[in-house]
Inverse folding.
């Protein structure tokens, strides 16, 4: 089965599709990285977030990581009600859609699976650049202390095959690296800026941003 939005972007694996009504896994085709179709928030015993799309972060021609965006399944239809009936092209070019996903207080997550080794300094540098594209210079930002706390959570290198996950709920950001709890930070402005790294006006790659919503049609039916 494939999504009706950009069918070449993410390939659904058929295992378990009959029981759930959709496939259990999605493969990002350029990296071959597999993502669960549903995941839980940290500490949850059952999954509550569903994938809205997967894509690849590239640096020049180098594939850095595959990424998947997740949104709480139970409230997604309400969160995205104003976009019901929109075409794939309209959704993927809609600044309002990305703004809604960035600002929603509903639980959400972005999961990154690295296709190559990346040093922690490079990771922090990339996230700092992403935050500053929304917040301006962190040195002069009112969220400086919380931003530094967030960046300090990324204190280990990413190995090939490693997984970094950033969860959001309301004003709280929660980071897990390879399943290890790295902590939380509670700041509404920062929480929005973190997800704007990928969904804001200056994402790492425009194609990645679009692909992260390529399968959001399940929330609009």
């Amino acid at each position: 089965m494939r999504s009706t939005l950009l069918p070449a972007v993410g390939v659904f694996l058929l295992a378990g599709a009959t029981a759930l009504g959709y496939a259990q896994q999605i493969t990002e085709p350029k990296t071959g990285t597999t993502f669960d179709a549903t995941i839980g928030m940290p500490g949850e015993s059952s999954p509550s977030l569903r994938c809205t799309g997967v894509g690849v972060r590239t640096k020049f021609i180098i594939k850095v990581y595959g990424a998947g965006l997740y949104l709480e399944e139970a409230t997604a239809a309400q969160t995205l009600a104003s976009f019901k009936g929109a075409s794939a092209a309209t959704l993927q070019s809609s600044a309002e859609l990305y703004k809604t996903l960035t600002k929603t207080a509903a639980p959400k997550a972005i999961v990154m699976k690295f296709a190559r080794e990346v040093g922690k300094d490079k990771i922090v540098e990339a996230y700092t650049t992403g935050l500053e594209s929304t917040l301006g210079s962190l040195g002069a930002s009112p969220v400086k202390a919380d931003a530094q706390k967030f960046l300090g959570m990324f204190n280990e290198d990413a190995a090939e095959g490693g997984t970094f996950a950033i969860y959001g709920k309301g004003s709280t950001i929660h980071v897990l690296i390879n399943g290890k709890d790295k902590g939380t930070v509670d700041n509404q402005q920062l929480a929005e800026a973190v997800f704007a790294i990928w969904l804001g006006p200056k994402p790492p790659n425009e194609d990645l941003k679009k692909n992260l919503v390529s399968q959001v049609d399940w929330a609009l039916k």
